[in-house]
Design goal:
Elements: H1 2-6, H2 13-21, H3 29-45, H4 47-56, H5 62-74, H6 80-86
């Protein structure tokens, strides 16, 4: 929650990215929801840096990445073109 309040400070991005990486195996609904919101704020405010991060970090929690992209696509702070450009970053989930 504290990181969510600090997202406006670009110097905190490496810390946020590090925390998101550590949630790779997280399954708790509310943790995934909060991390998704945090990721969406990063995408909206620091689009280029965050999409670069998503491009290189293939082991991120799929649910968190997809929730973050969903929240961006629901946001009124992004254009329709920007929302469409996020679709390739969605992670596919394979049922067991």
């Amino acid at each position: 929650m504290i990181l969510f309040q600090m997202v406006k400070d670009e110097s905190v991005l490496p810390i946020i990215y590090d925390r998101l990486k550590k949630l790779e195996h997280e399954n708790e609904y509310y943790v995934i929801m909060m991390a998704g919101w945090l990721l969406s704020e990063c995408i909206i405010q620091y689009r280029d840096q965050t999409l670069e991060f998503l491009s290189h970090e293939k082991e991120l929690n799929k649910k968190i990445v997809n929730k973050g992209i969903q929240k961006c696509r629901e946001s009124r702070r992004m254009t329709e073109i920007e929302k469409e450009q996020l679709l390739p970053y969605k992670r596919k989930s394979f049922p067991l």
